[in-house]
## 1
Amino acid sequence: MTALVVHRGGCHCGRVRFEVDAPARIEALECNCSICRMTGFLHLIVPASRFRLLQGAEGLSEYTFNTGIARHRFCRICGIKAFYIARSNPDGIDVNVRCLDAGTIEAIAVTAFDDGDRETATAAIAHLSG
């Protein structure tokens, strides 16, 4: 297994802060579904045990749609979605790589996630939250 580092991040206004254990060389996903495309979310999916919300739980709003499985969480002040529970990996946490602080990321490799073929794309990443 690749060594993990502690990445820290949060929302734009700083109310929401978190840390996540992940490799320094991040393998991110870029989804082409409507909400990800419109918000520019760059996905880092990890097991829930590797994510810690440090502050701001009381400042989060939640949005669900379609199946209701994905739980999109936004800062009530600045509107940034720094992490959420993804439909493709409901047992894990999906962190927005663009919300990570600088300093612990060595590289980011981005792979496309095709929402047009959700079944195949989801099967290919099922291991990420395990």
## 2
Amino acid sequence: MISFQEFQKIDLRVAKIAEVEDIPGKDKLYKIKIDLGDEQKQIVAGIKPFYTKDNLIGKNVVVVANLEPATIAGVKSECMLLAAKDVNGNYTLVTVESEVKPGTKVE
């Protein structure tokens, strides 16, 4: 269990996917550039088996915006996409239904 104060440290934001690139030699990973309104960040995400590049571009997703950066497959990852496994074991991204300005805080 975490306290409400600890939960409030997590910065959940809406981001628009701006670019998606393959990572050479990696079958499951994409390098994704996201728009957070006042800044752009990069994410490495293992969602390639579940989404094409075209399916991702322009999608409004929910990210953890204040995650400590990590290097994955030699590429810097500055945020984390939120996703859940569906009943078939495929990842599905947490998205917002209507148009929301990039960078909007999720409350």
